Amino acid sequence: MSTLNDTVRYELMVIVAPDIGETAIKKRLEAIKKSIADFGGEVFFEDDWGLRDLAYDIKKREQGYYIVLDVNLGPGSIKELDRMLRLEPEVLRHLLMKLPTAYQPKTLADMEAEAAAADKEEELKKEEKKDKKSVRHVPVMKVEAPKEEVKAEKSAPEKTVKKEVAEETKAETKKPAKKKEESKKELEDIDAKLDSILSNPDINF
User: Fold this and answer.
1) pLDDT score recorded for residue 34
2) Phi and psi at residue 106, in whole multiples of 5°?
3) At residue 185, does pLDDT exceed 60?
4) Mind listing the pLDDT tens digit for each residue in 118-171?
5) Averaged pLDDT of the chain
6) How far is it, in rounded angstroms, from Cα 91 to Cα 39?
């Protein structure tokens, strides 16, 4: 039998058949803890997970009662504890593993809360990355003021256009006067022809 001075920290998970009843389950777990003490060990942390669904059927059971025990136990007593649990008909499965030196006991509720917080933080990081990708940086274009030479070039055609319009307007005003003179000349020609006809002695009216 080992003493606490030469013990090692282990974690023991035990799954008990749920159909034996809650009272029988509690008695079975107390018997397991007593056996650990008989082997020179000590339970320093306990986390009761309760009734949970199994990943697959074990001995025709779909559910099992889970409990996790962190114990100090001598290496020589591990095989004895393992053998005893294998012979228990109410124990569906058990797992015994050595704990790391820096291990700190945590309940299942604490671990689930930490996992949920980590998932939430990861989602926030993904959202921040999406927001950064969606922002488009528009380059600012530098607009230079037009040079004086360009202004001069633009003003020259404007003056030319104005001059051409003025000349066309002037030409249009001259046209009616020319037409008036032509009409007067035609009337004079008609009057002259009428006078010659009227003065002709051969024509009787």
Assistant:
1) 94
2) -140, 145
3) yes
4) 888 888 888 888 877 766 555 555 656 656 554 544 444 445 555 655 565 555
5) 79
6) 19
Backbone angles phi, psi at 190, to 5 degrees: -65, -40
- In a 13 Å sphere around the CA of 110, the CA atoms on its Cβ side amount to 6
The answer to whether the CB of 127 falls within 8 A of the CB of 134 is no
Beta strand pairing status for 61-73 and 91-98? unpaired
What is the Cα–Cα distance from 50 to 52, expressed in whole angstroms? 6
pTM of the model: 0.55
Structure tokens at 180: 């008036």
> Angle at which helices 22-38 and 78-87 pack, to 10 degrees?
150
User: DSSP string spanning 17-72?
Assistant: -GGG-HHHHHHHHHHHHHHHHHTT-EEEEEEEEEEEEEEEEETTEEEEEEEEEEEE
Measured distance CA(183)–CA(170) in Å, rounded: 21
DSSP single-letter state for residue 201: T
**Residue linked to tokens 């949920």:** 116
The DSSP H or E segment spanning 113 is helix 108-134
Q: How many helices (H) and strands (E) does the chain have?
A: 4, 4
Instruction: Give the model confidence (pLDDT) of 170-179 as tens digits.
Output: 555 555 555 6
Q: 93: which strand partners? A: 15
pLDDT tens, residue by residue, 71-94:
999 988 999 999 999 999 999 999
Count of beta carbons in the 10 Å neighbourhood of residue 144: 5
